[in-house]
Design brief:
CATH architecture: 3-Layer(aba) Sandwich
Number of helices: 9
Number of strands: 20
Mean pLDDT: 93
Distance between the termini: 12 Å
Order of helices and strands: HEEEHEHEEHEHEEEEEEEHHEEEEHHEE
Helix content: 10-25%
Strand content: 15-25%
Radius of gyration: 19 Å
Largest sheet: 9 strands, mixed
Shape: globular
Structural class: alpha/beta
CATH class: Alpha Beta
CATH superfamily: Peptidase S8/S53 domain
């Protein structure tokens, strides 16, 4: 516990070092204001294919709200101050981003993002072992050939890469672009990421309503494999139902004028539910609320949560299909949590890093206790409550001590 407390104090000290340029003003979204949003990836009509889970803010007619110059939505200062996070990891860490298809402008778009927020220059990786750099790779871990371009998945890539980088600003980021959105290709990319030394692997995609049995593709001990919970409200999603991953739910994050944490509630779009194909790990069944959650012996989805509501979404720069745009969905919460694991640098201490958040006393987590994502027979499967619940897991980050 002393170790965890020390990390949190260190996080507070590091926040003061955030460059002023990172503190670009972001709107304080009101929870009662109607916000329009839409998916950027179509729901697949065939089995074995995943959908990306990014959602863009739109006007009432469904037109994306693109900003020509200044970003809207939360940026580095909002997330670091709101979640009490340092800007850099204490040891060399690699975050892998797994997505489908190619975003041809991502290298330059990340430069624009960094320049806008005053982040340190981020170099392109020249070697496999270089630290604090960015590499774009195919699902086999090679620079060429890259897959076909795709604007929907392209925005997903921009969201994932920029979020991971803004949270951990000295982490190496390897973007693995799968040949297509088939699970076969995405899983190949995950396995490559693990083989090439990733400390955290973010997966912002899924198949809503699908359970999936144990698979080696997402079973990589000592690596924080984070998976988005889905954007369709109450219900399960593969691969977030797997008991070897960190299933990440979504919230609405409210900050004050100085970007400090005010409150958090369940985002009504986040997925949650019980798996019938995967057994709950002991750290879940040991929670005091487990009996009330009523998953029986099945794995409960989710473990932890972070901002995902498009109303409180992230500012993203994507010149390939949009420009500056505000993006949410649990596609935001997955890379955010993956980067928090990288900041903490403790994933290798656990067979399955999801365990770490359950071991924390609660001081390093925000317990999300309000909000719902739908209707369910057992309240804590679709409603937030004190302690562990399925929409938000054990809570959201308050420093890195729980990770």
């Amino acid at each position: 516990m002393l170790r965890r407390l020390a990390l949190s104090v260190g996080a507070i000290a590091l926040i003061a070092a955030i460059p002023a340029a990172q503190a670009i003003a972001a709107p304080r979204p009101a929870t009662k204001t109607a916000v329009h949003a839409k998916r950027v990836c179509a729901t697949p009509k065939v089995a074995g294919v995943a959908a990306c889970l990014a959602m863009v803010r739109t006007n009432a007619s469904g037109k994306p709200l693109v900003s020509p110059a200044l970003p809207t939505g939360y940026g580095p200062a909002q997330f670091h101050t709101g979640y009490n996070l340092p800007t850099t990891a204490g040891s060399a860490q690699t975050i892998a981003i797994v997505d489908a298809y190619n975003q041809p402008n991502i290298v330059n778009d990340l430069k624009v993002y960094d320049s806008t927020y005053g982040l340190p220059k981020f170099k392109k990786c020249k070697t496999k072992t270089q630290k604090s750099c960015f590499a774009v790779l195919n699902q086999s871990g090679k620079k060429k050939p890259l897959p076909a371009n795709n604007t929907g998945w392209g925005l997903e890539i921009s969201l994932d890469v920029e979020t991971a980088h803004e949270i951990c600003q000295n982490c190496r980021i390897n973007l693995y672009e799968a040949n297509s959105a088939s699970f076969a290709n995405l899983e190949a990319a995950v396995n490559t990421a693990a083989a090439q030394g990733a400390n955290a692997i973010s997966n912002s995609y899924g198949s809503f309503g699908s359970d999936c049995g144990p698979t080696s593709a997402y079973n990589h001990p000592g690596i924080a494999v984070t998976v988005s919970a889905g954007d369709d409200g109450f219900g399960i999603s593969c691969p977030a139902t797997l008991n070897t991953v960190v299933a990440v739910g979504g919230t609405n994050l409210q900050l004050n004028g100085s970007n400090h944490y005010v409150s958090e509630s369940v985002w009504n779009g986040t997925g949650s539910g019980c798996s019938t194909l995967n057994t709950a790990q002991s750290w879940e069944t040991g929670e005091s609320t487990w009996t009330a959650i009523a998953c029986g012996t099945g794995r409960g989805m989710n473990d932890v949560s972070a901002d995902a509501d498009p109303a409180t979404g992230a500012a993203v720069y994507d010149s390939f299909g949009y420009g500056w745009i505000q993006v949410g969905g649990t596609s935001l919460s997955s890379p955010l949590i993956a980067a928090v694991y990288a900041l903490a640098g403790n994933a290798s201490s656990y067979t399955y890093p999801a365990q770490s958040v359950y071991l924390d006393s609660g001081a390093d987590l925000h317990d999300v206790t309000t909000g719902t994502n739908g209707t369910c027979a057992h309240s804590l499967q679709c409603h937030a409550g004190a302690g562990f619940d399925l929409p938000t897991g054990v809570g959201s980050p308050n420093g890195t001590g729980a990770f």
